[in-house]
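task queued by scheduler; priority normal; single chain, no ligands, no partner chains; default sampling; output format set to structure tokens
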Amino acid sequence: MNLYLEPNLASHRHGRFFISQLDALPTDDLPGRGLLLMHGKLFQGLDAFKRETWWQWACQPGCALLLLPPFEPGEVFDRLDWQITMREDMAGSNDGTIPDTLSAEVNLSLAGSDGEFDRSLGHQWTDYSVNTRYIKQHQGTGVFAATCLPLWSISLLDHAQDTVAWLESLLALAGSTAAGDSAMLETPDVELEPTDYTLMVCMQAWGTHTAEEITRALSQGSASLFSIPEADIIEGVARLRVLGLIDDAGLTDAGSGVLNESPYGQYVERLKEESPL
């Protein structure tokens, strides 16, 4: 299993178990495939663009993002109805080593109806409350998941293989990718949204690099310029970044190639004449 840790988790004491016992690797970059672990509280505190970037990555085949405790009570992610609530009593489970071992340490529940859970894997307690949920956009896509189980607990030191098996069960839901063992996500053969091409045209024509810059440029433009809702800009820029079509400097070589080969490439020069910047 390709298991990765978000940098903050990797440097936290919670990351020691995953690194020493499960051979997890810290990563500053989005891996081409595999399961990436991250503190839920950190994810909840990210800005909209960064959350969307993680979401878009987790939508890619062969990729899975799992949020771990701690969490802030309340909404996990605005795309989903998942809510973190406090438990009032001790959880109980008869569905495997991991939930059985951790039940006395869990003080949170995951409420909501979006996505799924698997009782056979211990995602649901005996009182029918849920500790783990996952969601796939559709068959063949990756997995976005959250769990209230403290998988970093020292209680699991003697259950490393059981922990690996539990994590592998989530990654198995993420499908496969043709990216092989590449460390970085390769540009897949995907069908982009029309908005994605429009965003690439803006970036190429105006030299804008971020969702905020594009939003500001459009707000300052003339009435003849098109309008894109801010939420669509954030989603589109995040998707383009995950696909390797843009980076901090703007369009990548792959992005320029995709744009120039599309019918939208011809609008770059025209849009330069109407630059609001």
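post-processing summary
- The chain has two domains: 3-174, 194-272.
- The chain has eleven helices and eleven strands.
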